[in-house]
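Quick log. Single chain, no ligands specified.
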Amino acid sequence: MNRLKWLIVIALFQFSTAAAMAEPVATDIVVRAKARDAKFIGSSIGGALVRIRDADSGALLAEGLTEGSTGNTDKIMRQPHSRYGSIAEGAAAFKATLEIDEPVFLTVEVVAPAIKRQARVLSQTQTWLVPGKPIDGDGLIVEVPGMVVDLLSPQTHQAVPAADSPFEIKANVVMMCGCALTPDGLWDGSKMEVAAIVRKDGELYKTVPLKIQDTSTFSAPLEAKSPGVYQLLVYAYDPRTGNTGVDQTSFIVQ
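-> predicted structure:
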């Protein structure tokens, strides 16, 4: 009986020693950011910032931008998707190689579009990564909701003479991947709700619907003959998906 106990102790010691001496294994993980109802977020709009953390400690294990194209429009937007079928086909991605000697539970954060601060959205998910078992191919696809709205006119803190009223509200609206809105196009701007909520001296003044005039450009005239400080919030909303984007500014009517 004593001999059996010793054999068990020795086996446990050998097992724990082998585990302690396990060599880290280089294991790849590919992360892609996909705009809701659109394509992948890549170099053309500054990429998506990806942060990979140890979920338990919060330690940052890898960080970088997705790089590459928005992907194949037909595969992503027009063709039916099959199980295990790829839709990425070389689209923008961030690839990290982690040296791990045991399975690690990861939190993957995606901030996109990285260079458009007023439109940035944080999306995240979690996954296990096992040594020698890569997450590659299309990789881990994280969806990023929203739209990018850029107010073009009026300019921030612009002083507008009351005599010039009405003047133009103009905004540029694109999908989070930078894909353009066009009348009756794949991303049909005529079916998007775009409007300006106008406040004067802190009080609601009016809401002005904007119409698409050209590729990704929406505009409408604004009557503002009363002097004061005006705040302008332009939103874009797609009732079919719930996608929403906003930009804001202020201007002065003299």
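Residues 2-20 form the longest helix (19 residues).
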